[in-house]
Amino acid sequence: MSLLRLFHFYSLLLLSLYSISTTLAETNGDPTTKTMEDFSGYPIHEPFHSFSSASLSSSLSVDDHGLQKQIDELSSFSDTPAPSVTRVLYTEKDVLARRYIKNLMGLSGLSVREDAVGNIFGRWDGSEPELAAVATGSHIDAIPFSGKYDGVVGVLGAIEAINVLKRSGFKPKRSLEVISFTSEEPTRFGISCLGSRLLTGSKALAEALKNTFDSQNVSFVEAARSAGYAKDQDDLSSVFLKNGSYSAFLELHIEQGPILEAEGLSIGIVTAIAAPASIKVDFEGNGGHAGAVLMPNRNDAGLAAAELALAVEKHVLESGSIDTVGTVGILDLHPGAINSIPSKSHLEIDTRDIDEERRNGVIEKIKQSAITIAKNRGVKLSEFNIINQDPPALSDKSVIEAMEAASKELNLTHKLMISRAYHDSLFMARISPMGMLFIPCYRGYSHKPEEYASIEDIANGVKVLALTLSKLSLS
Question: Among the residues of 29-181, which ranges form H helices?
Answer without folding.
Answer: 31-40, 53-59, 64-75, 92-107, 152-168
